[in-house]
Amino acid sequence: MPARSLRIVGRRAFLGSLLAVPLAASARTKRLPMIERLLVVKRERCLYAFVGSRLVATFRVALGRQPYGPKIQEGDGRTPEGYYFVDGFIPNSDFYRAISISYPNREDRERARRLGVDPGGQIMIHGLDPAIPPEFRQSHWLFNWTNGCIAVRDDEMDLLWDSVRWGTPVEIRP
To answer: Would the pTM count as exceeding 0.85?
Structure first.
């Protein structure tokens, strides 16, 4: 069985999980508790799911095609950085399913206004592009292929879909 990018961990394993090799487990057989907070660390290409201060899952993610630095404007291919929240669910997106986040926030809009640019929008956590061949779906996170979104495997999207609610905080760090 190939290694999966989902890792269920306890509180004591938090630091070790940041560097750990993903567990071999099927995400389809797992259920997560209701997630209270999501954290994306771009340089680690990871999305961490928390209940209180307890890390309950880690997902490997693909980012925008230009992953370094915060999103500045529409079309720059960058994944934003900052504090957001879940503000919608798209059951039949072009990328399986999608959870919308509240980009742009006030700081993003102000920066874009100062620069005289459109900040863009429609930043999502979503599943995989159906055009990704089966042999690359497990390692999709090795390539930055989105337009600024955060992508997880479709089976992982199912876990998030069932465990995240409108208003769930989403922090995206460099």
So the answer is: no
The residues, any chain, with a CB within 8 Å of residue 170's CB and separated by 6 or more, are 37, 38, 39, 40, 83, 84, 85, 86, 101, 102, 125
**Residue 17 contacts residue 55 (beta carbons within 8 Å):** yes
**Mean model confidence pLDDT for the chain:** 85
Output the pLDDT for position 67.
82
2 upstream amide cis, omega within 30 of 0: no
152 and 98 Cβ atoms separated by less than 8 Å: no
DSSP 87: E
Structure token pair of residue 109 = 């809009």
Residue 152 buriedness (CB in 10 A; 0-12 / 13-18 / 19+): buried
Give 29's pLDDT tier (boundaries 50, 70, 90): low
Give domain limits for the chain. Answer: 11-173
Q: Give the CATH number of domain 11-173.
A: 2.40.440.10
Q: What are phi and psi of 43, to 5 degrees?
A: -65, -20
